[in-house]
Amino acid sequence: MIVLTNKDTGIELGKITEAQLQFLVDQLEEESPTDTDYWLNRAELEILKENGADPELLALLEQGMGEAEDMEVSWARR
Known about the structure:
By secondary structure, this protein is an alpha+beta fold. The protein is built from 3 helices and 4 strands, in the order ββαβααβ. This is Galactosyldiacylglycerol synthase. It comes from Thiothrix eikelboomii.
């Protein structure tokens, strides 16, 4: 199981699949091979959508962002 968390608040956003994680890894910038967090903003969410992001993944990220303009999200296998 892979869990996404809002890194700023520590609030768990929800669980994602291996395929959804792979999509994020492929689409977003990693600072190192062991990096497990990503910074997202509204424009980045739109790019993910245009690039074919799973609707459930997008909904999870949008809900997690709430009214904020950006957030840092981390993932962990549990």
